[in-house]
Request: fold
Amino acid sequence: MNVKVSGVVLGTLVIGIVASGCGDQSGVEDAVGVAAAPSGCSQEIPSIPEGTEFVPWSSRLTVAGAPTEFAVQPVPKDGSLPAAVPHQLGGFPVVASSVAGAVTTAAFGARFAPGATQSSFLRDGGLILTLTPAQPTGSIANGMADDSDTGDRVSMSTVGSYAAAVTWADPDASGLRPHHVLWTDRSAGVDVNLAGVRSAAELVGIAREFSCH
Reply:
């Protein structure tokens, strides 16, 4: 089952980026309606429970064709980057990026090989962030948690002053299952999706590094 929620497909790599500061966290509502604590910027991250349900590649009702090339371009020699893209994340430099309409994507890793797919880039240890415009109100994380089709696939955390959804993708054709951390940066008006082959807690830590720098 591929479930699409606000532009994000569990089991498919639809990924994005934004940067914002932690700011004042008092009074911010998290997924269960209580104020998000300053722990949203802490690197002391409690264990994140995860569901064990997933859909094997061979059991999907619909599957995509052959993996397509990762549509990002290497960082120019002059080092110029799209707005809001940091030079480093999770210990890796930014190696490629793209802007397609209103969506910005950035790839962080040891290297970027032309012709790589998103799956192969993540398999090599890379991180991908994507930024897409958010709806005027609401939170992508809370929406995913409340949705009857996706709620049992979502664990909740906080990133900065925002509720964050943590998901574990269905395996792709090669068996890869990246984690995703998704949140709405309301101050910037964007939904953020960070993907990587990391533990859920480690990826939340990287998301906090990004949001709380």
In short: DSSP finds three helices and eleven strands in the chain. The longest helix spans residues 200-211. The radius of gyration is 16 Å.
